[in-house]
Write a structure and sequence with these properties.
Length: 68
């Protein structure tokens, strides 16, 4: 086993941890807004994440439509 393999595994683990730190709160936000939690994975795709944030900020949330 080469020394670089351990560094790759550590880097991969770090990236997965950071992805979880970002995706989990967005999953909760999407769920509370009335959208599918699976949409939260869009936050991991560059440029799509910005479109997704604007979509969440300015769209009519299905959860609010049920209350009215």
């Amino acid at each position: 086993m080469m020394m670089g393999d351990g560094m790759f595994a550590g880097h991969l683990l770090w990236m997965l941890l950071m992805a979880a730190v970002v995706v989990v709160p967005f999953w909760r936000i999407c769920s509370k807004a009335g959208f599918s939690g699976w949409l939260s994975f869009l936050i991991l795709i560059p440029m799509v994440n910005l479109v997704f944030l604007y979509f969440l900020a300015f769209s009519d949330w299905p959860a609010n439509r049920r209350i009215s």
